[in-house]
Amino acid sequence: MTELFGLSLQDLQALCEAESMPKFTARQIANWLYDKRVDSIDAMTNLSLKQRARLKEICTLRHTYPADCQVSTDGTKKYIFDVGDRRLVETVFIPDGDRATLCVSCQVGCKMGCRFCVTGSQGFHGSLSAYDILNQIFAIPEFSRLTNIVYMGMGEPFDNYDAVMRSIEVLTSGWGLGWSPHRITVSTVGVVPGIERFLHDCDCHLAISLHNPIADERLSIMPMQKTYPIAKVVAMLKEYDWSGQRRLSFEYTMFGGLNDDLSHAESLVRLLKPLHCRVNLIRFHTSPDTPFHTSPRNTMQQFMDYLVNHGIRCTIRASRGEDIMAACGLLAGSVPERAER
Prior knowledge:
Elements: E1 2-3, H1 9-18, H2 24-35, H3 49-58, E2 59-60, E3 68-71, E4 77-84, E5 87-96, E6 99-103, E7 107-109, H4 118-121, E8 124-127, H5 130-138, E9 148-151, H6 161-172, E10 184-188, H7 192-201, E11 205-209, H8 215-221, H9 230-237, E12 248-254, H10 262-272, E13 278-283, H11 297-309, E14 313-317, H12 335-339
Parallel strand pairs: 1-2, 6-9, 9-10, 10-11, 11-12, 12-13, 13-14
Antiparallel strand pairs: 3-4, 4-5, 5-6, 7-8
C-alpha cells in the first residue's frame, strides 16, 4: 500500500497516470492532503466515488498523533512520536512572542557520534520517511501557529537527504503549504556532498554545527571532522554567494575550558572571515555521564564581544526547554527504554 501523505505532486501524477486517472486529479489530491489536511480518502469529495474506491484499495492516508507531550516551565513543548518498530522520535515546539518554531527530527538516533550530544550517544536506529518528518509538523495542535521549521532535532539531515528534501518540497511548493523557504533552516555537521546538493536544490537557510575551529580539537568531539574537515566545509561555503536572503549560520556550543578562550575566538575569526554569516553561541546543556560543562555567562559574553568587534555577527541563543530535556543536544534519552514504556 502506498502512503499518500508525504507524496509530491510528481509522485501523485505518476500514481494517477498508472491508475488511468486524469492528470488534474493529482493536484486535487495534493490540495486535500496539504491544504485541507483531511485524514481520509472518503473526504476527497471532488474525486469520483470510483476514484476514491480505487485509492482506498492501493493507498493509505493517516496521521500519527503524538504519543506523549511534555511541557516546560518556559512554554516549550516536547512531543514524542512513535514511528514504528518500537522507535520513538522527539519534536520540540518553541513559542517566542509572535514566532513559533518547530524543531523536527529526521532520524531515530544519529550516526555522527558527536560526544556531547545525547542523540548521538544512542546510536543509529534508522532514517525517517518524508511521511514521518511531515507528520511531526502536521499532527501537533499548534500547526496553524507555526512560523518557522528547523531541522535540528534527532539525526543528520544530509544523511537522510532525499526524505528531508521531499518534506521541504511539500512545505514550500505552491501545491503544498506554499511556505517561503526562508522560514526553514536545515542544520548539518558539515556533510559536504549534502551541502552542495542543498545549495543547488533549494533556498532554505543553512546552519553548520561547528563547535570548535581548531581541527584536532574538533575531531576529539566530532568524529565527522575526519571525513569532512571544517576548513574544507568553510572553504566550499566561501565559493557561494551569500548576499541574498538565504542565511548562513554556524552553531557553536560553549564548553567550559574546552573551546571558549581567546585563542578559539581568534581561530574562529580567521576561519570564517570574510563569510557573510552569523555565529550562534549555545550554552552547553549538561546530560548524564557527560565529561563536559558549560562556559560561564561572562565568558560567553566576552567571546561574543570579540567576534562582533572583529566583524562577525554573533548572538547568544536563549536556552529553551532544558527542564524537559528538550534543549539543544538533549533530544532522545534511551531509545530502547522509551520504547518499553
